[in-house]
Design a protein that fits this description.
Helix content is 72%, strand content 2%. The protein is mainly alpha-helical and 431 residues long.
Length: 431
């Protein structure tokens, strides 16, 4: 009997989780909570989901370290590394900026912060006086983003790894791999064999953990729906739809166009091939936790070489946050609209700039973008406490924007591989 493909297993798990979570949410009242053997269903879902997430997070540090070191050392000369790194960063910066501008345009057109032409502050219980906010917004600067660059060079690499500071870990791994290429062959060869062995062990561990992905996905989704349900206030629903529309535009127009005309590959064949990683990203809301699946999928199904994927994808999981940057910008604009503030072009440009910079340092874990949104709100003079209104739909939108983040990483790796002359499984047949 033919085994059901992983992405279909995950899709079925998501559907079952939606039904199960909805039933439990409807049965739950102030005096009654559905339980099994005295333990609530939500607690069971949280427990199973946490085990799955922890298993994925457990392998992140050794996987990132080994993959980047092997990838950089395998590239060879510094000129090759410079070309690969330059193209990767250019792609990441361009697509992130495009995502932010799409988010800005969509929110300005839909204007979810207004209900029947009036600011939604009263409906959302936002009570800061608009006059005071206008005074704060005037003359705002770019904010302090120095801390982001300090995290790139950690004082203690072991501490950075323990605390999940991926930017510092990536920087160290790139340097380590680069200077391995400067060693004599007798010294470099055993080091390369060691790290290559570690990398392959981590990939086998990833494949093992992903066998349990449908169970983990079911638990994670069911827990969210059982606790929050599907209902929300009108302006928040409008905001969620605006963000989803912008994410869809970026995912199905911007990135596919780049794949088609620069990468010379079939966009939707690439998307189908990446479906296990995209569905994992959707269910876990973590691009870092999804990284092992992304690397395995893009090599096995898309056909990108390990030398490209092992450099581009770990870097992208930290610095390439298309969906997150889009959401940050849209959220700041939504809150400004809710207060009835007409932001000047200068302030909107400032929001775009800060969203671009702060998205680089956002951790690849659920709801991490809320921290970046707080930085943007403080930088432009909006009340940070207004973030509370975003929490209603945040987890669902987090799932969606994380999928876009991972899709952006996959597109970059595919395009870079094609520019390097690689023949992938999704290349356009010119015969």
């Amino acid at each position: 009997m033919r085994k059901l493909a992983l992405h279909w297993q995950i899709l079925i798990a998501i559907a079952l989780a939606a039904v199960s979570g909805s039933i439990i949410q409807q049965l739950t009242t102030e005096t009654f909570t559905p339980t099994i053997l005295g333990v609530s269903f939500v607690s069971i879902f949280d427990f199973v989901g946490a085990i799955f997430l922890n298993a994925l997070k457990m392998i992140i540090v050794p996987l990132i370290t080994s993959s980047i070191i092997v990838g950089v050392a395998g590239i060879g000369s510094g000129s090759n590394l410079g070309a690969l790194g330059g193209r990767t960063l250019l792609f990441y910066g361009t697509t992130t900026l495009a995502a932010i501008l799409i988010g800005l345009l969509t929110v300005n057109i839909i204007a979810p912060g207004y209900v029947d032409g009036k600011p939604a502050a009263d409906i959302l219980a936002l009570d800061a006086p608009p006059e005071e906010l206008e005074a704060k917004i005037e003359g705002r600067g770019a904010g302090d983003v120095v801390e982001l660059f300090l995290r790139m060079v950690p004082a203690n690499i072991v501490k950075a790894a323990a605390e999940g500071q991926m930017l510092g870990l990536i920087f160290f791994s790139i340097l380590f791999g680069f200077f391995m290429t400067k060693l004599q062959h007798d010294y470099a060869e055993p080091l390369f064999k060691f790290w290559n062995g570690v990398f392959h062990v981590m990939m086998h561990m990833t494949e093992f953990i992903m066998k349990f992905a449908p169970i983990g996905v079911f638990a994670l989704i069911a827990a969210v729906i059982a606790e929050t349900g599907f209902a929300a206030a009108r302006p928040l629903a409008s905001f969620a739809l605006a963000v989803l529309a912008a994410l869809l535009l970026h995912s199905f127009i911007t990135l596919p166009l780049l794949l088609r005309f620069i990468g010379q590959v079939k966009p939707f064949a690439t998307m189908r091939a990446m479906s296990p990683a995209l569905l994992t990203a959707f269910s876990t809301s973590s691009s870092s936790a999804t990284l092992p699946v992304t690397m395995d999928t893009i090599e096995e199904k898309v056909g990108v070489s390990n030398s490209v994927s092992s450099f581009v994808l770990p870097l992208g999981a930290t610095v390439n946050m298309n969906g997150t940057a889009l959401y940050e910008c849209a959220a700041a604009m939504f809150i400004a609209q809710a207060y009835g503030l007409e932001l000047s072009f200068g302030v909107q440009f400032l929001i775009v700039t800060i969203a671009l910079v702060t998205s680089i340092g956002v951790a690849g874990v659920p709801s991490a973008s809320l921290v970046a949104i707080a930085i943007i709100l403080a930088a432009v003079g909006l009340p940070v406490e207004a973030i509370g209104v975003l929490l209603v739909f945040d987890r669902v939108l987090d799932m969606c924007r994380t999928s876009v983040n991972v899709w952006g990483d996959a597109c970059c790796a595919t395009i870079i591989a094609r520019l390097r002359g690689e023949e992938t499984n999704v290349a356009i047949d010119k015969t």
